[in-house]
Amino acid sequence: KMFHSQKKKEKQTLTEEEQKKIEEKLEKIKAIQTRILKMKTDKETDIKNLDILLKAGILMPDFSTMWAYRKELILYHKSQISQEDFFKFMQKELENISGIMLKNPKSYVLWHHR
Predict the structure, then answer these.
(1) Cα gap 92→40, rounded to integer Å
(2) Average pLDDT, integer, range 46-50
(3) Helix, strand, or coil here: 8?
(4) pTM value?
């Protein structure tokens, strides 16, 4: 069959090793999502969580709950630091987000967070 002038590729079957790698990655993602949801539910406000959330954002740029929690933490810590430090932090935030966006330009959730 032809789709958009491109011949449809045959479905590839994965080896057991490839399938195992995919399953391990999915388990890792599930564990990270569970941890983030627990942090959000427990209303943790530790600034170190921002690093965890940024790393999770690289792995899962469309996880809207994670970005919403990150925004909550940023707004919470805004009142804890000087305006100058917050400005520096936000510049770094834009740099980090821009890097993730280059790899995931169609992530609406990421664009919204930006």
Answers:
(1) 23
(2) 85
(3) coil
(4) 0.71
